[in-house]
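We treat protein structure as text, and this decision shapes the records that our systems exchange. Because each token names a local backbone shape, the row as a whole describes the fold. An entry from our holdings is shown next, in its original layout:
>
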Amino acid sequence: MLPKGPVAFSPAAAEIDGWMIQRWAMAAPSCPHGEAPHVYMAYPETAGSALPVAVVFHSGAFDYVTGPHPHDPLAGDHFQEPSRLDRDWAVRGVFAFLGMADDTDTFTADAGALAVALAEQGIATLLITNCWGDLWHNDTPADGEEGTGRENALEQDGFARNGFAAARLAWRLVDDPEFASMQGFAPPVAVDRGHLFMVGQGTGGRAVSELIHEGYTPAAAAVDSSPDDLRAYWDGDAELYGATVVGLERVFPDGRDSVTGGSLATATLPRTAYLYSSLDPAIPATAHDDAITAVGALEDGWVLDTALSMHVPTAGDLPTARLLAAWLLDTEPVGGDTGDTGSR
């Protein structure tokens, strides 16, 4: 049973004293099974001043039912096992990021390394659960409401996906105090709104890029192992990626040529870090090419090939996570390992 909070922050990667995790249930958007999504915050029990906050979007948010039944579209075989279209899995995704639950991704060794590194730098973390399996892209309105241009393929799925709506909600909870109050969200620490960061791991990187496209501007943005150019799945080996493309076409009903509109490569970027591994077994290598060029062209951008044989290195590799956390604040990493933070 996963803890529901408030609970002590106890990640696997390292010991962190005096930090807590608190949970809030949000009224909307509802998960496919009807559950309310959850928001979590990791924060110190005592804070002498307002804290910088990283809004972090967890990895693994991609799934679909391969043969949905018209009377029960969530029944049947799923692309992922276990299903990622319910809140229980999404809560596990949050606690995997925090290093307090096992990750269900085969290629990710989640020990909470980035959660630890952020806490070491005094950066509070806010997370929201993604139970829609939509790479944080969709915003599907209820019947009778105005369209958003982010609708999923309702006829094929049989349910609404709302990962982008959740990402936007999470950002506004720390960026807009009046909105947060209306949602019943009162952060347990004062928030330094001059130091709000967007961070995405794996599919969560798409939440960062999609929010930036919609005009939400953080002090800095960072992604690790993001499938930024999704066209790489259509263009890659059909035996490897054919089933993935079927799911992508549920999330992006307009197909291959519609996916670049939400990528980092086509966004007007703030100060941005792009971490990836050329040895990542989970993402086609060409998915990174355009983003590497775009971020590398920024005067204050940082591109790092970790060259580690894993997906989402900041989940399990503490030195890499510490580099990223330090980069957000433009300071030295804990432990004195300055590493290679040069853009390339």
